[in-house]
């Protein structure tokens, strides 16, 4: 998933970015509300981590503007202002959750998963697709009950295709959700990851649509996740 991190503290921002990237996410980091609005106009984000103490526009005003402009993904407020009135105001303005600074990275990752799960209309941390089961929290896959070892990027590609089964995703769409700003991407990187997924999970799972992209067709019987 691609995450937009807003944080004006260089040390905390870099540490958070590194921690989330080690968890398999693509993380774009900005230091002002103005930069955040520009990033949202240019890219698709599954989650925004919004610091209320950004320079320039107030964080609550930025939150309201993001929702007014149509952002429908998860917004998690990350703030040192830990009071009941502030949490209520943030939730009423469109936030999905709060986490107070200083925070534990594992807890932050869990809250991101929870907020994104609710935004996607899921009630569990598992995706079921035919004989595949994806454990989102643990980033593990089983096929017909047998564990299958995937790299982080292979898992993220599989998750995107399964979450949007029946829909064709282009190479560019997959890349945008896998790689952060400035991260070097080989021209055939997605093709290589798809090749490895087919070797591990079977060629019938992912269909190539010539000159368009890739698709994981809906199985004959899908168990709702």
UniProtKB/TrEMBL annotation:
Q: Which GO terms describe its cellular component?
A: cytosol; protein-DNA complex
Read off the Pfam families from this record.
Answer: Response_reg, Trans_reg_C
Q: Which residues form the OmpR/PhoB-type domain?
A: 124-218
Q: What organism is this sequence from?
A: Janthinobacterium psychrotolerans
Location of the protein in the cell: Cytoplasm
Q: Which InterPro entries does this chain map to? A: CheY-like_superfamily, OmpR/PhoB-type_DNA-bd, Sig_transdc_resp-reg_receiver, WalR-like, WH-like_DNA-bd_sf
Q: Which GO terms describe its biological process?
A: regulation of DNA-templated transcription
Supply the alphabetized keyword list: Cytoplasm, DNA-binding, Phosphoprotein, Transcription, Transcription regulation, Two-component regulatory system
Q: Where the protein is mainly located, per its record?
A: cytoplasm
Every copy of the Response regulatory domain together lies at 2-116
- The name of this protein is Two-component system, OmpR family, response regulator
Q: Does the keyword 4Fe-4S apply?
A: no
